[in-house]
Design a protein that fits this description.
317 residues; alpha/beta; Udp-n-acetylmuramoylalanyl-d-glutamate--2,6- Diaminopimelate Ligase, Chain: A, domain 1; Rossmann fold; 2 domains; five-stranded mixed beta sheet; five-stranded mixed beta barrel
């Protein structure tokens, strides 16, 4: 599992997901500080003198309430409050609504090397965006060997031993109009207790290795519509060389899952042998998974219909 390290400077400007629209106004010497906690803090009670549970190691959000409180303090009172506040190793402060701290606040911040940011966004919207980014940054993650594609809106993670045909299957799926996400190295993040997001390694973005052909850039060959950067993992397809004599599931009555980062993802095992059209099987599996999300389980419905038919026949006898 990855050990995430996030610096304050990573939240400057456009992060690539959400533009926080913040600017640095003081404490620039502390811009490389690391964020160790994926939470934020509103220091209203702290400024009023209650320090028992001061979460100084979190990003401090100064909304209209905190800013108004500081403005109404007399100069001696403000110095006393700021002296106490900055005696802690405060990570950083962000003022919302384009409110700017006064010169005394900035002096303390510069002296302590505490970065001070200002955003024009209101507190609620900014906090929501920041929490989203922090959740992304501190989400538990793992890197797996596989190929990841978006098939009919279902994020399908192809897994199996090297050389089993994962990349070739993905290439055929892209040719059929589906979207490529990652090959060989797939980075998975658990965003919450039930959502698993997958993406490719930045250095390998949009690239795929095809044996006998080499490295290709899927976006350059098939166009921008053939790729996407990330997707929720909703189905794991495990490709396995066909083993003579092995029993494979032929009915699909029992749902199988594959555990990744403590999330059970629906999965199927697909035996591979010459003559089997694996891309079509993967397409069908993705469509079947969409039906299951809507509460339609074809195998179970057929099984139920057969049982009901047998019951009726028995009663007629």
């Amino acid at each position: 599992m990855a050990n995430n390290r996030v610096q304050l400077k990573d939240f400057l400007g456009d992060t690539g997901i959400i533009d926080l629209q913040i600017r640095l106004v003081a404490g620039s010497t502390g811009i490389t500080r690391e964020i160790h906690v994926g939470d934020i803090n509103r220091p209203g009670l702290t400024l009023a003198g209650f320090y028992d549970f001061f979460a100084y190691d979190r990003i401090q959000i100064f909304g209209l309430g905190e800013t108004a409180y500081l403005h109404q303090l007399s100069e001696p009172e403000k110095k006393e409050v700021l002296e106490k506040f900055f005696s802690y190793d405060v990570l950083c402060c962000i003022f919302t609504h384009n409110e700017e701290p006064d010169s005394l606040f900035m002096e303390y911040a510069d002296a302590k090397g505490v970065p001070i940011f200002i955003t024009k966004k209101d507190t609620t919207k900014f906090t929501s965006s920041l929490v989203y980014l922090l959740n992304e940054a501190f989400a538990p993650s793992v890197t797996l060997h596989g190929t990841f594609v978006d098939v009919y809106g279902i994020g399908v993670l192809l897994m199996g031993k090297s050389g089993v045909g994962k990349s070739e299957c993905a290439l055929e799926l892209v040719e059929r109009g589906h979207r490529f996400i990652a090959d060989d190295v797939v980075i998975l993040k658990r965003i919450d207790e039930s959502i698993l997001m997958g993406s490719g390694a930045p250095m390998l973005k949009h690239h795929m290795e095809i044996r006998g052909l080499g490295i290709i850039n899927v976006k350059d060959i098939f166009g921008i519509r053939s790729v996407r950067d990330r997707k929720r993992v909703e189905l794991v397809v495990i490709l396995e060389e066909w083993e003579q004599g092995k029993e494979y599931d032929r009915l699909g009555l029992e749902d199988q899952t594959h555990a990744i980062l403590d999330i059970d993802v629906p999965s199927i095992m697909v035996p591979v042998r010459p003559g089997r059209n694996i891309p079509i099987i993967v397409e069908t599996a993705a469509l079947n998974q969409r039906l299951k999300k809507q509460g339609i389980f074809t195998a179970r419905e057929l099984d139920r219909n057969i049982r009901e038919s047998l019951k009726r026949e028995n009663k007629e006898e």
